[in-house]
Amino acid sequence: LSTATFASLGSCRGSGGSTVTADTETSMQEIKEIHELKDQIQDVEAKYLQSLKEVKDSLVEMEEKYRKAMVSNAQLDNEKTNLMYQIDSLKDSLMELEEFLAETRRESEDKSKLLEREKHAYSTLQFQLNELKETLKQSEELLTEIRQLQLKQDGLVREVSDLQETIDWKNKKIGALERQKEYSDAIRNERDVLRDEVVQLKDILKVLKCILSTNLWVCFSEIRLRKLVDERENLLEQVKSLKEQIEQKKTGQDQYIQLDGSNPERGVIENGTDADIMDMQRDANRLIGDLKFKLVKSEQEATALEQNVIRLEGQVTRYKSASENAEKVEDELKTEKRKLQRELRSAMDKIEELEASNSHLTKRLEKMKASRGVAASP
């Protein structure tokens, strides 16, 4: 610009002096304008440099912010990766716990069903136990009946005493027969028969005394050991023999009367003796029949009572065993129920802990997302 101005000035000098003044003014104006332009240019350059410096400072600041943002993004990415890994791990743990909870619930349902079945079995055993109590009550009633039978034995005592009196009476008769040595051989045979009968009656008396003096069951066993059936058969045989002897005696008496009809006193004695013997025979037959009936009846009652006692003892043993088994099953079920309740409480505690941890991690992730959004917004 200055070169052009000087060139214009040189050209103006060559043109002539007339125009020097006008050119000079023009040149002065141009120089002034040039100085103004220079000032403006300097101002513009200063402003440009100032703005360039500000831009550079701003660029450095932005680069620093960008670097920090990149570092923050890298950290957030790392934290995000870690959190995603933790979330995946927690999801896996949660799935495992859900599976464990489902399995525990299934086991709990199975145990509940088993418990219901065992409760049903327990109710059944309880019912059987009640039946056992009823059976025991019946046993007590049977024992009461046995005591009543013992009271009947007291009646047998009185009958035995009557039998003893009869035996004493027969002994007296036998003594009277022994004092009559002039009797015939038939009378002696009858005396021997009566002696045998007295011995047998004494044996029967001993048996009855045993029944009255010892325990009922021991007496029954002793009666069986002594073969009451054989004794009963022996009694029947004795009855038959007595009948035969009576017939023989009648025949012998007829013969004796025919041989010794001249002695009327002897006939009177023998007739009196025959009447006594017939009375004794009838009494003996009556006593033997009563004893046979009582022995048969006692044996039947003893057999029935033994069968009832054996049956009741078997039922008592069976019901006691069932009751003990029911108590054991009930204890096992209670133990299993307590164990299942502990396992269920432990599983619920673990689930609550995992839910709390999951909620905490979810809140933390939301906070990190919010902070990352705030950092990325400028």
Structural class from helices and strands?
mainly alpha
Beginning-to-end CA distance, first to last residue? 48 Å
Strand portion, in percent? under 5%
Cα radius of gyration in angstroms:
70 Å
Number of strands: 0
- Counted up, domains total 3
Multimer state: single chain
Region (Disordered): 355-378
Coiled coil: 27-166, 225-252
Pfam family, one: LRRFIP
InterPro entries: LRRFIP1/2
Characteristic key phrases:
378 residues, mainly alpha, 6 helices, 0% strand
Description:
This protein is mostly helical. The protein has 3 domains: 2-8 and 21-74; 80-126 and 337-376; 131-335, no CATH class. 95% of the residues lie in helices and 0% in strands. The chain has helices at residues 2-15, 20-179, 185-213, 216-225, 228-259, 264-376. Helix 3 (185-213) runs parallel beside helix 6 (264-376). The chain is rod-shaped. The two termini are 48 Å apart. 7% of the residues are buried. Belongs to the LRRFIP family. Residues 355-378 are annotated as: Disordered. It comes from Electrophorus electricus (Electric eel). Keywords: Coiled coil. Residues 27-166, 225-252 form a coiled coil.
